[in-house]
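Dear colleague,

Thank you for sharing your sequence with our group. We've completed the structure prediction you requested, and as agreed, I am returning the results in plain text so they can be pasted directly into your records. Please verify that the sequence below matches your submission; if there's any discrepancy, let me know and we will rerun it promptly.
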Amino acid sequence: MSREEAGAEAGSSAQLPAAVLAPQLEALASQGLLRSRRLLQSPQQAQATVDGRQLVAFCSNDYLGLAADPRLRDAVIEGVHRYGVGAGASHLILGHSTAHHQLEEALAAFVSLPRALLFSTGYMANLGVVTALVGRGDAVFADRLNHASLNDAAQLSRAEFKRYVHGDLAMLERALAAHPARRKLVISDAVFSMDGDIAPVAALLELCERHDAWLLLDDAHGFGVLGKTGGGVLQHYGIASERIIYMATLGKAAGVSGAFVAAAPAVIEWLVQRARSYIYTTATPPLLAHALLKSLEIIAAGSDLRARLAASIASFRQGCDGLPWRVMPSDTAIQPLVIGGSEAAVQVAEALAARGLLVPAIRPPTVPDGTARLRVSLSAEHQPEQIDQLLRALHAIGAAS
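Please find the predicted structure tokens below.
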């Protein structure tokens, strides 16, 4: 058989992507796990236009209601006039603008750490930090409920990846004590994105000090919200240490886009030299960095916004009494209401949508089997009557179930 004939025969027997993937997609649909995208046709606000309908949205990470704030809009316009639109290059070539540099300095001061480094996204920040700091012969220790970006980063680093049961510090300590790794890194969400609870940062740091490990905290959901001036989980607990590497995102409470890492100067300089997700990508548009400088000002002066958010959290939790579903312990803007089965969670979410309320159903593999939930995300922008509307609908659906 000629080479051409062999190639043709192999090609005729190969399955096309549609034939391979269609049954798997059907299986996801039958399990209530097939996801779809909604079309947002308005600014990101509590009252949003989604798929042609006016809905009250409880699914945004815009915790302080800044995503559509006119002050940030004006800052973006000013940034366009000053810096243009695109960065045009990576940071290490010619993409590092004055706006980026000013923002890094402002972020470091804001979280009371010596130096900060901007990344395009939180996902890229976590990938860059972990893969730059550890590798073969090292070990990463991770809470089992960490965000996917931390898990992926640990796997890509080629370090040994050890996971401990959520919040089980005794298990973590045993693992740290027993492992002979040359370099140890503990990684943890600061606010867990699907449960809403806050990590025991002081206890984690104490273990890292005892066992000579670094501590990477992903504060995506705490920055801007926790702490007296929104400085995040470290300000919330009053903690500082050179062992801590702090990551936070800028597209949630800050209302814009991007992420940053703050740490000791040597750590940041090493990331500049070795973090591949920083080095090998075009810098974010400088106009966004310019807008984020204004966002930091608003956050620092935003005690009223955080007070309104806290009031909404308390009102929601109190109003959940009597529901047939369990609201998980959380003092943060993330309020998970555990339904159980995936199909049941989807049905409750659809019943809420029919009443003009948009709350996402979170299903496996994002959360463990049997714990599908409604993830209620609250914002300072939500009005008391919108919280009441959601609670009345939940009680009505619960009574009918």
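Summary note from our side: The longest helix spans residues 303-319.

Kind regards,
the structure core
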